[in-house]
Amino acid sequence: MAWILLVLAGLLEVGWAIGLKYTEGFTRPLPSLLTVLSMIGSMALLGLAVRTLPIGTAYGVWVGIGAVGAAILGIVLFHEAVTPARLVFLTLMVVAIIGLKATSGH
């Protein structure tokens, strides 16, 4: 169950990272509200997950999900650069997330 909570926390992190772009410096009320709610939800779920998961593993996976998700959505939504090097490093981040999960002992 902790891993499910952690993945959900990571997905909400993606949501608030992308949401920051839409808030335009927190000047737009609805995107700002949704972004803040995503932040709160993400932290709350991370807090629940670390009750049973090691903090180093949980935090690394949480950040990794957020970073990979935000980078992919940045490419899709905001037409950010897609280079071979960027794709290699995103792939390495996914491998690192899988490695942390596989070696966590949970």
Automatic annotation (TrEMBL):
**Regions crossing the membrane:** 33-50, 57-78, 84-103
Q: How does it sit in the membrane?
A: Multi-pass membrane protein
Q: Which SUPFAM superfamilies match?
A: Multidrug resistance efflux transporter EmrE
For this protein, the record's InterPro entries field holds: EmrE-like (IPR037185), Small_drug/metabolite_transptr (IPR000390), Small_multidrug_res (IPR045324)
Signal peptide position in this chain? none
Q: Which UniProt keywords apply?
A: Cell membrane, Membrane, Transmembrane, Transmembrane helix, Transport
Q: What is this protein called?
A: Quaternary ammonium compound efflux SMR transporter SugE
Species name for this entry?
A: Deinococcus rufus
